[in-house]
């Protein structure tokens, strides 16, 4: 092939340029981009569990800090299991596009707060991550690792010592791979070197997430070094937070859309809603960014913020997801077009309001109306299948906690019972089809779901999962009766696709 042919191929393959530092000036004028010198940014935050949510939320808030001129708060992100994020973002100088979508269109910005990415389960990458966490430059270690990442039995609060990953780390604590092993070993190395401890900042959707993170870290540390555990308990800060921004998984259609609009290719952009909220307990050992620049709130009412969000937003999301999966509704916005689903959600929100202690200055009715608008956002393709994952970890916090509070007041909970019944139908449908359930307790759940085909048997077997429902709920006669009635009601609804056999 002659030179002219080679040039033609190069030209053809370069129609769409890759997003990076050199192509920032090629972006359309309306796209926000870093106006600061990224070479001067100090990477002082290590984030464990790098995914779409962190890049739409904490990194977005940190970008506002950097844009203000405070360059001391760059982020090193870590993918705990996969190198996919690292490999996607490295050719882009770790830049990515954030698309905030709403009824009025899109707001596009390039986020530069992510300075480096460590990725994968390889020993070399874990060693590189541990070295960064142990270094004096790291002042905050933040987390979005979901409920599973803490290795706590949510029913008992005990560390899952039998979990293979935890057992492996305890057997070889100097080369850890779990977040608990990494945090404890990094703190051990800092203590030995006379370096102050970093703050552990949980940003997961969990009540009292800072306290949960502290409990998990201390439980692990006590298995290895009692003196170190005492030092951590005394000197390490674990602030609680409440995070909120609906952020679906990125699709190939999203990538193609943004490449067409921007004229550059981003291998892993983030699509999110325009609403964002972050409430933080102001307790940090080595300082913190002024995230209020981006609109964050520092508050001493974290528990109330968390409770309202977990129950009203996340509880409704889970309910909507299972009902959506049973009625053929692919996205949250699709599900909000179903009178069956919205009617149940309205009752669910009222049940939550009956036992809700809202933060000062917050009107729960206004908050719920805002949620309805967010859920109906047609531009945000949030999949019900994505939300339906990890039910065993989500149900206790989102639905069972308010259920128990209502039971203590002698109140029936038909909407919460319907939501739990929908989850049961969802897992039975998967079990009967021989499908895969995305849940850390998948084997146990599917095993119980296959034990019976009639309504009463299914409810009995699934309600007997102590790791989810504890010991109290299976023994609550009124709730058992209510749950069974809602399970049968859903099975008989012609809109619901169920695998359960209901007798006459």
Give the C-level CATH assignment of the largest domain: Alpha Beta
Task: Extract low-pLDDT stretches.
Answer: 1-14
Q: Could you state the CATH homologous superfamily of the largest domain?
A: NAD(P)-binding Rossmann-like Domain
Our Rg estimate from Cα atoms comes to 24 Å
As a percent range, the share of strand residues is: 5-15%
Query: How would a textbook summarize the main sheet?
Result: 5 strands, parallel
Tally of separate helices? 21
Shape: globular
Share of helix, binned: 40-55%
CATH topology of the largest domain: Rossmann fold
Structural class: alpha/beta
* Oligomer category: single chain
The strand line-up of the biggest sheet is 6-3-2-7-8
How many domain regions?
A: 2
Mean pLDDT: 93
Question: How many extended strands?
Answer: 13
Keyword list:
N-(1-d-carboxylethyl)-l-norvaline Dehydrogenase, domain 2; 2 domains; 12% strand; alpha/beta; single chain; Rossmann fold
């Amino acid at each position: 092939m002659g030179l002219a042919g080679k040039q033609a191929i190069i030209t053809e393959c370069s129609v769409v340029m890759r997003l990076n530092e050199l192509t920032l000036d090629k972006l359309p004028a309306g796209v926000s981009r870093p106006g600061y010198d990224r070479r001067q940014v100090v990477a002082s935050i290590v984030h464990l569990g790098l995914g779409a949510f962190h890049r739409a939320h904490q990194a977005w808030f940190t970008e506002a800090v950097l844009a203000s001129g405070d360059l001391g708060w760059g982020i090193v992100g870590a993918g705990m299991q996969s190198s996919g994020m690292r490999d996607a973002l490295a050719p882009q100088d770790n830049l990515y596009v954030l698309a905030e979508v709403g009824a009025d269109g899109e707001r596009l910005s390039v986020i530069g707060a992510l300075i480096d990415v460590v990725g994968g389960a390889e020993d070399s990458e874990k060693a590189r991550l541990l070295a960064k966490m142990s270094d004096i430059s790291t002042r905050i270690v933040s987390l979005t690792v979901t409920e599973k990442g803490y290795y706590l039995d949510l029913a008992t609060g005990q560390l899952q010592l039998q979990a293979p990953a935890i057992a492996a780390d305890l057997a070889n604590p100097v080369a850890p791979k779990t977040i608990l092993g990494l945090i404890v070993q990094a703190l051990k190395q800092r203590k030995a070197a006379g370096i102050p401890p970093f703050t552990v900042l949980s940003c997961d959707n969990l009540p009292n997430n800072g306290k949960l993170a502290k409990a998990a870290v201390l439980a692990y540390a006590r298995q290895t070094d009692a003196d170190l555990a005492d030092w951590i308990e005394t000197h390490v800060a674990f602030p609680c937070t409440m995070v909120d921004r609906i952020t679906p998984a990125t699709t190939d259609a999203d990538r193609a859309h943004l490449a067409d609009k921007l004229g550059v290719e981003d291998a892993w952009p983030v699509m999110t809603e325009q609403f964002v909220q972050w409430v933080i307990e102001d307790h940090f050992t080595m300082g913190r960014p002024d995230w209020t620049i981006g609109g964050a709130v520092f508050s001493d009412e974290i528990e109330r913020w968390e409770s309202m969000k977990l129950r009203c937003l996340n509880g409704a999301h889970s309910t909507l997801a299972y009902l959506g999966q049973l009625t053929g509704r692919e996205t949250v916005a699709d599900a909000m077009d179903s009178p069956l689903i919205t009617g149940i959600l309205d009752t669910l929100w009222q049940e939550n309001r009956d036992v809700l202690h809202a933060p000062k200055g917050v009107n729960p009715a206004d908050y719920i109306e805002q949620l309805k608008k967010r859920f109906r956002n047609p531009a945000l393709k949030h999949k019900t299948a994505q939300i339906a994952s990890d039910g065993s970890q989500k149900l206790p916090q989102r639905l069972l906690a308010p259920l128990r509070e209502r039971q203590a007041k002698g109140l029936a909970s038909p909407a919460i019972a319907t939501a739990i019944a929908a989850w049961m139908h969802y897992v039975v449908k998967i079990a009967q089809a021989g499908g895969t359930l995305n849940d850390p307790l998948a084997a146990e759940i599917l095993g119980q779901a296959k034990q019976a085909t009639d309504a009463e048997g299914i409810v009995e077997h699934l309600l007997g999962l102590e790791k989810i429902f504890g010991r109290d709920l299976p023994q609550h006669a009124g709730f058992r009766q209510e749950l069974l009635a809602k399970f049968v009601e859903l099975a008989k609804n012609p809109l619901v696709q169920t695998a359960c056999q209901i007798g006459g």
